[in-house]
From TrEMBL:
GO terms for biological process: D-alanine biosynthetic process. One of its GO terms (molecular function) is alanine racemase activity. It comes from Cerasicoccus arenae. SUPFAM superfamilies: Alanine racemase C-terminal domain-like, PLP-binding barrel. The lineage of its organism: Bacteria, Pseudomonadati, Verrucomicrobiota, Opitutia, Puniceicoccales. This is Alanine racemase. InterPro entries: Ala_racemase, Ala_racemase/Decarboxylase_C, Ala_racemase_C, Ala_racemase_N, Ala_racemase_pyridoxalP-BS, PLP-binding_barrel. The modification N6-(pyridoxal phosphate)lysine is found at K39. Its cofactor is pyridoxal 5'-phosphate.
Amino acid sequence: MNGSTHRCWAEIDLAALERNLGKIRAALPSHIRYVAVVKADAYGHGMPQTVARLMQSGADAFAVANVYEAAELREIGSGWPILVLGAVLPEEEAHLLHYDLVATVSTAEEVERLDKLGRKHKRPVRVHLKVDTGMGRLGIWHTEARPLFERIVAAKNIALEGVFTHFSSADSDPDYTLLQRRRFLQLLDKLPELADQRLLIHADNSAGLDTLAPDSPFNAVRVGLLQFGHAPYRGSLLDRIKPEPVLSFHARIGIVKELPSGVPISYSQTHKLRRRSQLAVLTAGYGDGIPTTASNRASVLIRGRRCPVLGRVTMDQTIVDVTDLPEAAPGDIATMIGAQAVTIEHQKDGETHERITVEEFAYWCDNIPWEIFCSITKRVPRQYKTTRDQ
Ligand SMILES: *Cc1c(COP(=O)(O)O)cnc(C)c1O
């Protein structure tokens, strides 16, 4: 069909990524800094290509999970602040200064350690203080944050550059998000030194943006999923942004075969054919990132038509029902996530494209879009589309 295809691959549309960043920025007050969250290989989209494009497109800063990701990012471009979101282990500390990174701190122990590190190297260690307003993960509990803030401000070898918190339920519980936001604002009110610190104050992940008030003291956002084209929550701002999906995920038909009714399909016989069926065996499985939870639940697009997955997804192969698509043939592209053109004879309601979104795919897999992206394995080549015109 298409000479540039593999057995299984992900296509990454960098121009769509750039447009998404532009749309998100345009929807936010202009003073808000854009911190692009690119942990876990840019949510499986590929760190170097994604980050380079985000740098060219106006991202102000980056956030990653750990110092190793930060080191990789630093190779791509200098000058951009890099916030390490996860805890830094004692043996990883030296990387902070070597790559000029910003650490997240939330305990007195970390503050002591980094102050000592800065003293030893005669260079202040850059940090953001993380506050727990109800996520229950990293962060100093908000009612106890003030003394730690003062301890950091007093530390000679630490440069405090920001204060932030993280929402646990921005995509599902607006009331709880509001409570977290209020707790954070109450703490900020109690930090009179804040005004002369010129700090980055941030709380919002993608879903949080919807309730970000323009007159609030927040001056940065941390955007992950939304820039990759997925609104994890239906809200007025998120609906207005209309991000475009950046990644699509495809395999091919290896063989097409016919089996009589009653034959069990794949490991453990979880599906038995209810009619004489035409099956297509795809060249991808859970070894590529199609979760086994997609077994008997997901559909894939072939020639613009939805074809259901039958039986267990196996490591390298997945079986789909193409009985209603007699023209399906070896080599055809099977799209797990993404769009395909609908052939004229199958068009209904004037639709020219059929699409499976990552949200829909994740729903079939009892999973979340973030984890679906992170599950696309190293075996899957990423192909980059770079042109600006659609
Ligand atoms: C991953 C992460 C984000 C980005 O979240 P999205 O929902 O993908 O926008 C923001 N902040 C922190 C602390 C994170 O770990």
